[in-house]
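$ ./design --mode recover --in tokens.txt
reading tokens...
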């Protein structure tokens, strides 16, 4: 079924459980993404894929784009919902549907396309980090007048280690070699969290400590880095909206293969 009404429609594939804090202040992570990406006249739907909620195959054509969120789960895992999500991504890729993957979403896209995802050998990256955009990305988004470096909130210990030959790395940092990638003109992954506020980050650090996922020293360093840097939220919003709504000048981007191995 195709979207014949002319009204843009998008779906958030929710891969994380909402904390009470995020639900109360932001309407859950779905609300966080809608606040960043939605524009007047659009319809946004949510599918809790961790609970087995997926769009029907017959309804995929209704959507102009999909957003895959972060998650506490491993993108290289074998949970049923992870395998089902991999299958869905392959269907959407064959349909050339726009897909924006964030953190876990970025990693699961890399895996679905034939890449390799694993724990980072340098451990957690939590806080605010500056990443470098490729010249080809800056050229394709010249109308946005983006700087060569942008700050973004990070919270991950896994990363894409290798992408398939058809993918292009379009941003990197001194911590992570594949901070962003594109695949054709319809798939883009971002390792960081353009949708996060500092409040969400600080609350998440507290949750990670409570679950013994991180040590106090890592938490202290993350809070210090968050205090020193401001994420470039408006620039990231413009970048993500431009990609998802089909406004990239993809013909001005050079295609490059990239293998990141330490």
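writing sequence...
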């Amino acid at each position: 079924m195709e979207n014949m009404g002319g009204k843009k429609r998008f779906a958030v594939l929710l891969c994380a459980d909402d904390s009470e804090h995020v639900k109360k202040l932001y309407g859950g992570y779905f609300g966080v993404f809608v606040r960043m990406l939605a524009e007047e006249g659009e319809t946004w739907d949510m599918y809790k894929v961790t609970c087995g909620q997926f769009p029907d195959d017959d309804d995929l054509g209704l959507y102009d784009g999909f957003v895959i969120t972060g998650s506490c789960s491993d993108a290289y895992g074998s949970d049923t919902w992870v395998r089902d999500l991999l299958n869905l991504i392959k269907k959407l890729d064959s349909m050339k549907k726009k897909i924006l993957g964030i953190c876990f979403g970025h990693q699961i896209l890399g895996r679905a396309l034939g890449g390799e995802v694993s724990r980072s050998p340098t451990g957690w990256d939590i806080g605010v980090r500056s990443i470098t955009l490729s010249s080809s990305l800056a050229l394709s988004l010249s109308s946005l007048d983006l700087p060569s470096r942008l700050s973004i909130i990070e919270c991950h210990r896994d990363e894409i280690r290798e992408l398939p030959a058809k993918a292009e790395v379009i941003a990197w940092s001194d911590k992570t070699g594949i901070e962003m990638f594109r695949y054709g003109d319809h798939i883009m992954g971002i390792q960081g969290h353009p949708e996060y506020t500092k409040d969400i980050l600080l609350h998440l650090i507290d949750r990670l400590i409570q679950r013994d996922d991180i040590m106090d020293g890592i938490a202290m360093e993350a809070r210090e880095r968050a205090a020193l840097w401001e994420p470039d939220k408006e620039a990231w919003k413009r970048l993500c909206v431009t990609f998802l709504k089909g406004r990239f000048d993809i013909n001005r981007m050079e295609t490059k293969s990239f293998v990141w191995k330490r």
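exit 0
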